[in-house]
């Protein structure tokens, strides 16, 4: 299974610090961000391959190419690492969805339904680049006894809220019916993208992202958008 490649982070100079100190702090922040990313990538791949319980800190460190102590320097435990992994990954997904919606409406002059369609494509692109992360996230939604359930609920709420916001705007400007159940529709749209993308990558990998997006787009237009007069 391929290694995940979600994006970011960096550090910044402290306000008022001497230039040399600020540069050192920035460099340290960048290095720590890169190390955390390597640990996230190693952990998500190993856990997807063999499960959370069977994955050890030693294996994560070895896969990441760092010392075991480096794992504990960045995360207090394997549970904390996994919790932060889920938080980071779903935050990135939510950001991708929001940016896609903003581009569709503000930069390209589209409708809110166009924004929903753009979010579907952004979600497919994100999942195609991070299939193991998505697989873990979907699996964890069904496990209510994990210590990180509050974190999972929180980050899920952020992703769903992005979709809800676009749906509310669509209702407000008359693109969608006022009878629309916004919370349930937002959850259904996000769930559709997650499950359809995993099914595509697992069982229909010969299909292109454009093809899958076109099919989901037709479903969106037919089921969410108001019927157009003939």
TrEMBL record:
Domain of life per record: Bacteria
Biased composition (Basic residues): 1-10
All residue ranges annotated as the HTH tetR-type domain in the record: 33-93
InterPro entries on file: Homeodomain-like_sf (IPR009057), HTH-type_TetR-like_transc_reg (IPR050109), HTH_TetR (IPR001647), Tet_transcr_reg_TetR-rel_C_sf (IPR036271)
Residue ranges for the DNA-binding region feature of this UniProt entry: 56-75
Entry keywords, A to Z: DNA-binding, Transcription, Transcription regulation
This protein's name: Fatty acid metabolism regulator protein
Gene this chain is encoded by: fadR3
């Amino acid at each position: 299974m391929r290694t995940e490649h979600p994006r970011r982070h960096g550090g910044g100079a402290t306000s008022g610090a001497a230039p040399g100190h600020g540069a050192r702090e920035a460099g340290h922040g960048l290095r720590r961000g890169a190390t955390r990313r390597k640990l996230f990538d190693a952990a998500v791949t190993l856990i997807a391959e063999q499960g959370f319980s069977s994955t050890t800190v030693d294996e994560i460190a070895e896969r990441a190419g760092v010392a075991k102590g480096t794992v504990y320097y960045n995360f207090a435990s394997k549970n904390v690492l996994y919790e932060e992994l889920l938080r980071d990954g779903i935050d990135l997904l939510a950001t991708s969805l929001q940016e896609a919606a903003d581009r569709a409406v503000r930069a390209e002059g589209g409708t809110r339904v166009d924004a929903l369609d753009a979010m579907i494509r952004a979600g497919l692109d994100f999942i195609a680049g991070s299939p193991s992360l998505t697989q873990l996230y979907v699996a964890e939604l069904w496990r209510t006894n994990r210590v990180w359930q509050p974190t999972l609920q929180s980050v899920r709420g952020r992703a769903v809220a992005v979709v809800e916001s676009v749906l509310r705007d669509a209702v407000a400007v008359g693109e969608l019916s006022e009878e629309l159940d916004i919370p349930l529709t937002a959850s259904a749209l996000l769930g559709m993208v997650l499950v359809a993308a995993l099914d595509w990558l697992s069982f229909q990998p010969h299909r292109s992202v454009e093809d899958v997006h076109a099919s989901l787009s037709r479903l969106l237009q037919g089921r969410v958008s108001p019927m157009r007069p003939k």
